[in-house]
Amino acid sequence: MKSSTKPETRQRPRRSGSDMPFLVTLSVIAGTYVLLIVMLIVADITYLGVAGSKTAESGIAGWPIIGAMVSAFRSPEIRNAIELTMISCTITAILSVFVAVPVGYLLARYRFPGRNLIDAILDIPIILPPLVVGLSLLILFQFLPEHVRRNVVYEKPAVVLAQFMVACAFAVRTMRATFDQIDERREQVALTLGCSKKQAFMMVILPEAWPGVLTAGTLAWARALGEFGPLLIFAGATRNKTEVLSTTVFLELSIGDLSAAVTVSLIMVMAAIAVVITARTWGSRSINL
Amino acid sequence: MITLENITMSQGRFVLSDVSISIPKGQYAVLMGGTGSGKTTILEVVCGLRTPDQGRVLLRGDDVTNLRPADRDVGYVPQDGALFKTMTVFDQLAFALVIRGQKAGVIRERVHELAELLAIDHLLDRSPDGLSGGECQRIALGRALSFKPGILLLDEPLSALDDDTRDQIMALLKNVQKHTGVTTLHVTHNLAEAQQLGEMMLRIDDGKVQVLDVTP
After folding, report:
1. Which long-range contacts (CB under 8 A, 24 or more apart) does A35-42 make?
2. What phi and psi values does residue B193 have, to the nearest 5 degrees?
3. How far is B173 from chain A (nearest CA, A)?
4. How far away is chain A from the Cα of B216, in angstroms, using its nearest Cα?
5. Cβ contacts of A18 within 8 Å, gap of 6 or more
6. Which of A76, A165, B24, B160 lies 20 to 30 Å from A54, alpha-carbon distance?
7. Beta bridge mates, A161
8. Can you spell out the DSSP letters for A207-239?
9. Closest residue of A to B43, CA-based?
10. Contact of B198 with B186, CB cutoff 8 Å
């Protein structure tokens, strides 16, 4: 707008202050945190580089990280741990989505007595300290029949169950947010067009929720990868049996092999990055958790 | 024919008290009322998305008060069109027929017939993303008409359109009604729109509906 039309009546214009201090403050805070995250990973890699060049026994010259990785992959214990981690995380992710889709849909679409209570209960695994989740699982199984207990506790199924307890709660949150953002009107139109509720869900709502389903799955997978507390208590940390990568880090640390612990950590970092990229590529970026 | 008998319901701040309407077969009725007057609620009661606390809904003379939306044979065009985001325009128009298990050839023929009537032939392969408001309304209208319902409900179909498009869609609605003879209940807050289209004019105020005018 031109302000020169009536210069004689013009008051001294009010100048708004500069936006720079605000933007700089935001950038500094954001930048510090991002830098901290990047430094964590860089420190791991650098540490391996230094430790690798000191020992200089394993690996390719100039690439001590790759040497460390190769020797980690050569270890049968770590190979087993990688295998169990991949399988258990994948089962956990699939189970979590399988549960989270109906729960999220019910909470987003229906008003029923006790809904708020159920909503609060679903947050418990997120809020509880992980060790308490593990301990509570252990206690719960004390009340179950002996043959169930023997086949689950300190066995491989315990790994999946411990991961699932927490990961599923995150998947439920994601699916709830996904269904909340899908306009109910489209579902209602489908009903008037001749659909049953099930048909409307399967043909209209679920395809729209698909990016959310992928996000929920990858989030559950990533949570399961990082799970440690409940696992340690409920599944134990037995080599070649219930050892997953997070347990490996703990076991290697406890025997003083810092190098191996860092190497396994980097394997987990790579897996996590792969999952984040997958979620970003195919998943939804517009879900407000 | 659409008949509401003594419909009473309260949901949130909406209250409908003892609403009775009768729209004869083949009529184009326009229901006017301000924002929050319960216009949309009446449409939802007719198509079965809401159940009234009291009263009966009769369509074509049959009591459908307890029938599910799927079994009422009513075409519904909600306010913003509510197109299915993951389907092409063709799939949206075919949707009701696929649900009814029609043969592929029959479906294709019907979709092309509709596309021609609504002048959306060129959009059949498109997804709803990036379509204009007028195009969305045409598609939503086609989707609602696809299974040849006896009754058509329109919720402010012209409110989000610019003037030119509004005139086009208004002409289209007249044409569709002449072509299909579908009993139509059109909800709007716009008097000019009501006067141009309506053969029967209704007004809702404070939860009560009154008949303003019937053009013979």
Report:
1. A41/A266, A41/A269
2. -60, -45
3. 19
4. 31
5. none
6. A76
7. none
8. HHHHHHHHHHHHHHHHHHHH--HHHHHHT---T
9. A192
10. yes
Pairing, β B183-188 against β B28-32? parallel
Q: What counts of helices (H) and strands (E) characterise chain A?
A: 13, 0
Dihedral sign of CA atoms A271, A272, A275, A281 in order = negative
Please answer yes or no on whether B84 and A190 come within 8 Å at the CB atom: yes
Nearest 5°: CA angle at A86, between A81 and A91? 125
Rounded to a whole number, what is the distance in Å from the CA of B58 to chain A's nearest CA?
16
- Closest by CA to A206, choosing from A63, A101, A75, is A101
Q: Answer yes or no: do A194 and B80 touch at CB < 8 A.
A: no
Among candidate residues B51, B42, B73, B87, the one with its CA nearest the CA of residue A192? B73
Tens digits of pLDDT across chain A (289 residues): 444 455 556 677 788 888 999 999 999 999 999 999 999 989 988 888 776 555 544 444 556 777 778 888 888 888 999 999 999 999 999 999 999 999 999 999 999 999 999 999 999 999 999 999 999 999 999 999 999 999 999 999 999 999 999 999 999 999 999 999 999 999 999 999 999 999 999 999 999 999 899 889 989 999 999 999 999 999 998 888 899 999 999 998 999 888 888 889 988 988 888 887 877 776 655 444 4
Beta bridge partners, A242, equal none
Domain ranges of chain B: 2-212
Give CA–CA dist A88/A99, Å, rounded: 16
From the number of C-beta atoms within 10 Å of its C-beta (0-12, 13-18, 19+), residue A178 rates as buried
Q: Which of A183, A184, A193 to mutate to test the interface with B (most CBs of B within 10 A)?
A: A193
- A191·B70 Cβ contact <8 A: yes
Average the pLDDT over B151-172 and give the result. 89
Chain A stretch 183-242, residues whose beta carbon is closer than 8 A to a beta carbon of chain B:
183, 185-186, 188-196, 199, 203-204, 207-208, 210
Q: Supply the DSSP string of B45-81, one letter for each residue.
A: HHHTSS--SEEEEEETTEE-TTS-GGGS-EEEE-TT-
Q: Which of B70, B83, B96 sits opposite A196 (nearest CB)?
A: B70
- At A74, which amino acid appears? R
ipTM of the complex: 0.93
Nearest residue to B96 (alpha-carbon basis) of B113, B111, B79: B111
Using DSSP's 3-state secondary structure scheme, residue B16 falls into strand
Contact check, Cβ <8 Å, A189/B143: yes
Strand partners, B59: B2, B62
Q: For the beta carbon of residue A175, count every other beta carbon within 10 angstroms.
A: 27
CATH pick for B2-212 out of 3.40.50.2300, 3.20.20.70, 3.30.70.640, 3.40.50.300: 3.40.50.300
| Whether B84 and A195 lie within 8 Å, measured CB to CB | no
